[in-house]
Structure formats: C-alpha cells, structure tokens
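Hi R.,

Here are the chain sequences for the assembly we discussed:
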Amino acid sequence: MHSPVVTTTTGRDLRLDLFRGLALWLIFLDHIPSNVVSWITIRNYGFSDATEIFIFISGYTAAFVYGRAMNERGFVVSGARILKRAWQIYVAHIFLFAIYMAEISYVATSFENPLYAEEMNILDFLKQPDQTIVQALLLKFKPANMDVLPLYIVLLILFPPILWLLQRAPTLALAASAATYVLAWWFNVNLPAYPSGVWYFNPFAWQLLFVFGAWCALGGAARLGPALRSRVTTAVALAYIAFGIVIALTWYLPGFSRLVHLPVWLDDLIYPIDKTNLDVLRFAHFLALAAVTVRFVPRTWPLLNSWALYPAILCGQHSLEVFCLGVFLAFAGHFAMVEVSGAIWMQILISVLGIIVMIGTAALLMWYKAVEGRGSTTRPKSADADLAGGEA
Amino acid sequence: MRVLFAAALAALVFADSASAAERPRCGVPDYLLFGDSQLKRVFGAVVAEKRLRIAVVGTGSSALAGPDGPPSAYPARLEAVLGQRLSGVAVKVVTLLRTRLNAEDLAKGMDKLVVDEKPNLVIWQTGTIDAIRRVDPDTFKLALEEGVDRLHKGGADVILMNMQFSPRTETMIAVGPYADVMRVVAQHYDTPLFDRLGIMRHWSETGAFDLYAAGKDNVLAQRVHDCIARAIAALVINAGRLQAGQ
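And here is the predicted structure of the full complex:
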C-alpha cells in the first residue's frame, strides 16, 4: 500500500484481492466448529482475526471504487450506488437467514438425545414468529455467525457522507471516525439486538477500521509510506506480533500457560479482549500485520501474477458472493460432519472441498461477467469500477 | 507436496482410528480439570465437621428426564461418588433446578439459597440459556459476579460450571463468548471453573463418547452424567485439598 493509489487507475492492487480472498477462506474455516483445519487460521496466533482484514479491505475498495464514481458522477449518483450495494447485501443476508432457519428447524425437530434436551430450546424464538422474523428483517435478530453482513450494511449506509468528507478533508474524516470510536467506548454506544443485548460487531467501533481502510485508499497509504518503510515501524510491529503469539499460546497450551505466568496487572490490562467493540489490542494487531505485510509484499510482487495465488485473488474479487457461500458451506459442512462423520479426515475433506467450491463459484461468476461484458458493443468506461464496485 | 499432504492425511486418519480403538474411559487430563483456586470452606467443613453440603444450581442440563432420570443425573451421582471417596464424611447434594432461567435470574436467588440450604459449596451451572437467547455478555458477566459475590458473602464456596459440548448445535448456539466470560469471572474471584465444555469436547475427540449420536434412550446421557460427577468429585477433592478416604 505504500505506492500511491492513483485515481486514474493503472489497474487494481492485487494484494487487496489476495488478502481479502484469504480472509474469506479463513472466515469459512473458522465458521466450521470442531474443525481441526481452523488451527491454521490467524485468530489462533494473535489478537485479531480475518474479520479485521475483511472490513479493512472492504473499506479500502469501497473508497477506491465509489470515490472515483463520486469524482466523475457526483455525490448523488455514487451515493445511490453505495445504497444499492447495501441493499444487495441485505438481500443476501436475509437469504442466508432463510437457510439457517431451515437447518435449525430440521435439527431441533428431528434430533433426539435426552442429554441435549436443553439445547433443543434453540427453537424457542419460533414461538413468537411474528416478533422474531420481523426483528430479523430489522437486523436486530441475528443467528450465530451471521453478524458480519449486518455490520457491512450499516457501514455502507453511513458511507456516502463519510466518503464525501474523506475526499475533502481526509484528516478531519479520520479524526471524526476515531472520535466516534472513542465515544462509543466511553458511552457504551451500540445498536440494540433482539431479544436482548447489543450487536455482536458494534458498528460505531468497527467503522474505525472501515474508514481507516477508505482513508488509506484515498492517499493515506501514500502519506504513511515513509513511516511504513522505516525499520523502527517494522521492528515494533514484529515485536507486537510476537507478543500476540505468546499470549495466544497461553490460551491453547496449558503447559505453556503455567510456564509463562502473566503478572496480574498485565492480565487485567489485556482481558477481556473485546471483539464487539474492536478492542484496541485487536486494532493494533491488525495494524502490525498490515505494516509487516506491505513491507514484505510489495505491490509489484511477482507471485501476485502467479497461478498459485490466483484462486485466492479470484475469490477476493467476488467477495460478497463468496462470503455468503462460505457461511452457507460452513453450515452445510458442519451438517455433513454431524450426519456422516466428525472424524479428522472428514474435517479436512470438508475444509478442502469448501474452498474448492468457493474458487469454482468465483470462476463461474467471472465467466458470467465476461459473457455479459462481451454482449455490449462498447465496454462501458465504468466496467472496471463495476468489477471492483461489485466487490466493494 | 501432494505426497506429503497425502501422508499427513493418512497419519491423521490413522491417529484418529487408533484413539477410537483404544476406547479410553472418561478420564480427564489434569490441565482441563485442576487449577490453583482452592475451596477453603469445603476444606473447613470436611475437616472440622465431617460433613459437606453441596447445592447444585442450574438449568435443564443438570437433570435427566424420565423415572430413572433424577438418580442418574450428575448431582445424585456426585453425592454417591463423593460419599464413597470421602469415607466418614456426610455428603449431601441438593439440586435446585431452574429450567429456562438465565444467569441473571439465577443470581437473584442466591441470597435465599445460602440461607435456606446452608451449603458449603455451590456448583453453579449456567450459560446455556444465556447463549441461546444471546444475552448481552456484559449483562451475563455482571450477573455472574453478583451471584458469586452473594454466595461468597453467604459463606459458600463456588464452582462455576459452563455449558455442555453439543456438536449438533455448535453452529446454532454460540457458546464461546459466554464460556470466556465464565473463565474470566472464575479467575477474578479465584474460584474453580468446571470446564464441562472442554471436558466433553475432550471426550468427544478421544472417542470416549459419541456425542453426535441420536436416540431416545437415556444410556449415553446417564454415562455422560456419571463421568461428569466423577470429574466434579475429583475437582472438589483437589481444590478442597482433601484426601480421598479422609
């Protein structure tokens, strides 16, 4: 990201697609419970996880695409396109909700085991369908693992004025975003959830990552360039990542946690790590990962054009569809594990198959786009933006 | 590369079937069961009075249905197992089930509980209903703190017990955040956590129990409850610094 992003583009920064594609794979793997393959995902080696990468890159590409649209076509047109995108994501979310309802209803009515009588109360919420379904449509009722898309929807709805401000006074916009984050922490502001509580991803906290991504896309990354290239930054980032690994190891290796006894003050300082409100430790961990990544993976990295990384890049270029598919595949994969076998070979098989299906679907989507693009006589000027815009 | 992958896969499959073939009993590794927290009131009651009163406060997963349910559920089994292991000590376990109540509702009853039952130890099983209803984790945490506080002030030791490992509902009930909160609260109050979630997951992974199995009969459920009771008994003896046979 240290090369300035020119709005008269010379092509996409493939690193964004690559890391978003990888993040989608990791989110998929993390969403399959009791999956041995999820040990490779980054959430086990530090404070942040793939969600941070996904939201940051989404902010970056949203600003990149709609920022150009705002320059060329004005606030109203680009704002309308952003809202249209939010609508698409809303529809996708409701579709996933329907699939979820089907699975949960099936399990709760067909599965019998006296040991789990209590867990079968999961269908309690269907006792008031008038309430629950309306609350789901209002994005207040969200089943497990279905919290990212509602966050994304809210972020996009709020994005037009933020983008407008980012283009005129980027520093002010970023400061306002940081202030919102601090105020959300200070006053405990979050959106209400149903039947109780608040959103799992607090939009007022997580917007910081989205706006920061957007800010980077609109010249911020170039301004950060010298700092990112300094050895001190890299050293600090690496040290922090190492610290994250040490802490994360104490969660999983009981022997290790007895060896490394954290002092009480440090324990109190670290815990609880608040994912809902994008804990500072998580945000900093993402920044450290990003700083190290841009340092060692330049935009012109030859491997970005290699066949080995192409599948991940392809997935990253169709992120909404692949994300939704991943949520569905995690449901379906877990269902297969329950019905067929939960053995380790099955976990590996499902993880690998799921990623192959994600890649295949991304390739299919690309083919559709190519076919439709060929249909029109002159490729519209905004086609490239649409490709990215479709993914913002 | 491909060969390596195949070899790794084969090794994993083999390791998996090997562990299933051994059919381990429901043993629990020490790191999953024991911690540094002590049960001083339990120690006092056992050593000084030769008696131990335990109250289990919990929801549906602390009980089993059917006519043979109550005597085979873990509270009754705990009384039997502890009575055996602590010979000469009068062990009494009472169960106070409050099905479908979340931690906040349960916490409110703790004052009355310590007066009515005068337990030396309260095993507080909670979290499942909160996870199903997606109660705000902060609210859950406050309720736990309030409950543990009241129990300590009322003169009882506390063991927090988290939810069951339920593979079928794993994608539907997000228990993780609630289990984390329980760990944090237990640590803060220096009170033991009975990690039922981790222990049952361990049993599932080592092949001790097939928790994916479906069926109406109580056999699996009774065996699991019996094993849970044995594990709790071991925890009480360890954290109470008691000697079996005392």
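Chain A touches chain B through 46 residues (CB under 8 Å). Chain A has one domain: 14-389.

Let me know if anything looks off.

Best,
T.
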